Amino acid sequence: MSGFLSPILTLALKDILLEIRTKEIVSSALLFAFLVVIIFNFAFDPSPAVVALVVPGILWVAFTFAGVLGINRSFILEKDKGNMDGLLLCPVSRDVIYAGKMVGIFLFMLVVEMLLLPVFAALYGFPLFIPELLLIVVLATLGFAAVGTLFSAMAVNTRSRETMLPLLLLPMTIPVIIAAVESTSMILDGDPQGQLGQWWQILLAFDVIFLVISSLLFGSVLEE
Question: Where are the alpha helices (DSSP H) in the chain?
Answer without folding.
Answer: 2-22, 24-43, 48-80, 84-89, 94-124, 131-155, 161-172, 174-189, 196-222
